[in-house]
Every structure is written in structure tokens, then in C-alpha cells.
Specification:
Elements (H helix, E strand, L loop, with lengths): L1 H9 L4 H13 L2 H10 L16 H4 L16 H10 L17 H7 L1 H6 L2 H10 L16 H7 L3 H9 L6 H6 L3 H5 L14 H13 L3 H9 L13 H8 L2 H9 L14 H11 L2 H4 L7 H10 L8 H6 L6 H12 L1
């Protein structure tokens, strides 16, 4: 029945021209997109027949409609301007990620425009065109655009939204390192106020760990953040190791963060650190260009992290690490 419904929908007027426009966006074909919009001006009202029901504008985000992968168009800003001039609603919602996200929220949380170097320019253009920065659920999964950035490894985009007036709850303030705002959620006796929740405190602590806001992480530890509590399957040290900010990792180890507790993927602290060597990217470590992986692993080993059987052999077989890095990490693991 679902296939029959899909076939019937595909016969409706506008579907073929919509998919042509989608292909033009994928290909970065600005002239082709402009010609289609001129020929079919009602495309600004059309929505995808796919389950996300996005408009053509949502395809600019490449988030929830991820057919770009590494071929995200470098001229995405030009494509956006063509769509904006055609009258597309910049605050239109789609139906992915269990919520109703907007183009701004999807762009801000997407890895593809970030890696292409056009994410902030797109966000600026969206805001200039009237996109609402605090649209409820803008990033999907019940997240505001800013908190969605934190949950998806986009610290630079979160910082951009903060600087452009996004509202900050305790979680968001901690995640962007605004200790001054974090302090405002506690009363004169240092107790959590009524405008914040324990969940926001813990999630904010984990984002502060991931993004290297060591002063915020230290403060929230003093206010009851739990080194053991998992958020999305990982604790504060796991997040810090993913972010790769050495000073924050050192703080957590000194405060007694457990080294052998496993995350949802089965990784201990050392396992997480080794995974991050190959999987961490500069988008997530911003504003630092890269992490000092050898120093991080050395810190964990000196703190007593267990080196499980086969780990050294695994490292030696990871050609993607590069020969010099493999040797240096191997030396640390051998002691």
C-alpha cells in the first residue's frame, strides 16, 4: 500500500519539476535552478513527497535529506539566494528528526555546509532573510537551534547563534562557555534556581566538557554535576575525549572521573581517546585546529587507564593514523 501511494503521488503535477530542482541543488546548478523556478513559480509552495516533506529550501541544509555526502555544493549561498528571491518561506518547517525543524536549525546542525566552509555565511543569510533564531524545535528532536548545535558537534555554529542573540538556558549557556550566564541560574547560596533543571545542568556539563569550557565544567562539578551520569550514552570524560581539549580532560581526571566506565559503544576512556584520533574532526574541536592526541593518551595512561589486550596491535594496524603518530602512541602505550 505504501508503494502504491508513492506511485500515485509521483503522478501529481509538480512532482517531476520539484525533483528536477532538487537535482539542480545537488549539482550546484544555479542557472538550472533559477530557470526551473521561473518556469514553475509554484515550486515555492511544493513539498517533497518523501517522508520529511521538506521544501526545496530545506535541501540547502543537507540535513535529514543527506544525499550530498562529500559533494555538498560550494555555491550553496548562491543557491539559497535564488530560492529566497523566489519567495520561499525561510521559517517553513519540515518533518524529520521527530520534530518540525526549520532550515536555519538544519543548516546550523549539519556537517556538510560546515565542512564546505559555508555554514556561517548561510546562517547569516537566513537571519537576514527573517529566519527566527529561537523557533521551537528548530533543530529537530525537541532542540532549539543552539542546543541542537551542541548535541551534533557544531560548536562554532552554536557560538555564532549565541553572538546573534539566541536565548540561553542553562544547558546552552554552559555549552557555549558563558559562565556569566551559567551563574545566573543559581541563587545567592549556590543552589539551582527555579528557571533551570537538573537535566539542563548535567547536559550543560557534558557539552562544556566536550567543547573545552574548563571553567564552566569546574563550576558545574562544584554544583553537583555527576562524573558518572551518561547523556546519550556517554559521560563527561567521554565527551571531553571526543572534543579533544586537553585542559578539560586533565580537570576531569584530577576530579576523579572514572577511566574504565564504558560508553554505549563499549569504549573505556582510553578506547574513546583512540577512537577519536581517527574520527574527531576540526569542525568539532573548534576553535582549536586539532587535538594533541599523544598528550591525551599519555595523560590517561599515567592516570592508570587499563591497556586492554590487543590495543597496541590495533594501533599499529591503523594506517589512517599516519606512521609517525602510530609510533608515538605506541611508545606511550608501551610505557
Amino acid at each position: 500500500p505504501h508503494l502504491e501511494e508513492w506511485v500515485d503521488a509521483g503522478r501529481k503535477p509538480g512532482v517531476f519539476s520539484f525533483e528536477q530542482a532538487v537535482e539542480a541543488i545537488f549539482a550546484g546548478d544555479a542557472a538550472g535552478l533559477a530557470a526551473l523556478l521561473q518556469q514553475y513559480p509554484d515550486l515555492k509552495w511544493e513539498r517533497s513527497r518523501r517522508r520529511h516533506h521538506g521544501t526545496l529550501l530545506h535541501y540547502i541544509a543537507a540535513n535529514g535529506v543527506e544525499y550530498y555526502r562529500d559533494d555538498y555544493p560550494k555555491n550553496a549561498l548562491e543557491l539559497f539566494r535564488i530560492l529566497a528571491e523566489a519567495g520561499f518561506d525561510v521559517n517553513a518547517i519540515a518533518e524529520m528528526y521527530g520534530d518540525f525543524p526549520t532550515t536555519l536549525g538544519l543548516v546550523a546542525t549539519s556537517i556538510h555546509p560546515a565542512k564546505a566552509g559555508v555554514q556561517l555565511a548561510l546562517m547569516e543569510a537566513l537571519l537576514a532573510a527573517g529566519a527566527l533564531i529561537d523557533h521551537p524545535g528548530a533543530a529537530g528532536n525537541g532542540h532549539s537551534a543552539l542546543v541542537g548545535c551542541l548535541a551534533n558537534g557544531r560548536p562554532e555554529a552554536a557560538d555564532y547563534l549565541c553572538l546573534h542573540g539566541a536565548q540561553l538556558d542553562l544547558e546552552g549557556a554552559a555549552g557555549v562557555g558563558r559562565l556569566d550566564v551559567v551563574l545566573s541560574f543559581f541563587d545567592a547560596d549556590g543552589r539551582l534556581g527555579s528557571s533551570a533543571t537538573r537535566g539542563q545542568l548535567q547536559r550543560g556539563f557534558n557539552w562544556a566538557c566536550e567543547y573545552g569550557h574548563v571553567d564552566v565544567a569546574a563550576y558545574l562539578l562544584d554544583k553537583g554535576a555527576d562524573l558518572l551520569e551518561l547523556v546519550n550514552g556517554m559521560n563527561g570524560l567521554h565527551y571531553a575525549l571526543m572534543g579533544g581539549h586537553l585542559s578539560t580532560i586533565r580537570l576531569l581526571v584530577e576530579r576523579g572521573a572514572p577511566l574504565e566506565v564504558r560508553n554505549q559503544y563499549g569504549g573505556t576512556a582510553l578506547g574513546m581517546a583512540l577512537w577519536a584520533v581517527q574520527n574527531r574532526n576540526a569542525v568539532g574541536t573548534w576553535p582549536e585546529a586539532e587535538a594533541d592526541n599523544v598528550a591525551i593518551i599519555d595523560l590517561l595512561v599515567r592516570a592508570g587507564a587499563v591497556i586492554e589486550p590487543g590495543v597496541l596491535e590495533w594501533v599499529e594496524g591503523q594506517e589512517g593514523m599516519g606512521a609517525e603518530l602510530r609510533v608515538r602512541i605506541g611508545e606511550v602505550l608501551r610505557g
